[in-house]
Every structure is written in C-alpha cells, then in structure tokens.
Prior knowledge:
The chain is 52% helix and 14% strand. The chain has helices spanning 4-17, 26-35, 43-59, 97-128, 142-151; strands at 62-64, 70-72, 74-81, 84-91. It is built from 5 helices and 4 strands, in the order αααββββαα. It is extended.
Amino acid sequence: MATYTEQLQHIWRQYKEAGMPMPATARQVAGWAIENRLWMPRPEDVVTRCADDLARAWREDYRTDKHGRRYRTKHAVRVTKSGVQLAFWADIDTAPRHHMQRAFTQRRQQIVGDCYQLSVDVDVYNGKHPDEPPIQMVLDFNYDVEEMKALGTSGGGRRG
C-alpha cells in the first residue's frame, strides 16, 4: 500500500501522462486531480489543513524590537512520539531557553539539509547538461547575512 505522499507523487505522474500543460502549479495539478476524482478530502484533512494554515501563519508572525530589528515570534520544536512527528510552538518572548535552543538548532539543521539538497540538485543538473556552462552555487552565506544586517533588511518574512 502506497503512503499518502507516494499517492500524491503518483498524481503528478498521472497529470504528466495525461498530457497536461507543463510546467504546472500545484493548484493546477490539484484542480485536475479533484476533477478526475484522483483526490478526495478525508474528514481528518480539515483538521490537518487548519493546523497547516495555523503553522504557516505563525511562521509569518513578526514583531520589531526596540532596536528596530524585525524578528520571528513563533518557533517550533519537532518531536517524534510513538512514530508521529509533532511540532510544539512557543512565542520567543515567553518561551523557555531549552525550547528556543532546540528550535534554533533544528532550524539550522533544516537549512543545512536544504543546502545539501540544493548542492546535489545543481550537481545533477550540471551533469545532465555537460555542454552548457555549469551553474555555480555559493553556499557560504556569511557575506549575505552581514550585508542584510548592515542594510537593515529582513530578506525573510513579510512586512506587515
């Protein structure tokens, strides 16, 4: 039995095999999948959707401190209990230190994982296109971070 994620990945293949327009947005593929009855919402999807929307909103919640620094207010710590991954959220202004330390460490690990995957993806693309100049990807962000600090820009979340 395929996992839910594998089922969703299969919908992409079906969309492509049906000769639908490419590249495509997730909304286009979702509309096509629903129209073709390849995906139907389950009752638990409503709670999952609400939880996902809440988490997305919390990730985009920012405040500005007395020094004018715009900071993200909500931070999650991921924990696996009985094989289920849970995210426990806290506000940076009231969270205990151990929560924030774990949240920051986990975010750094996510960034490293994203950089690793980006590096692999670039290497694969370059390998598939040997007649073109290779795409170069710099993964040292020290200069970028210092420049953003100096300019006082956030580069991240939305202003609001």
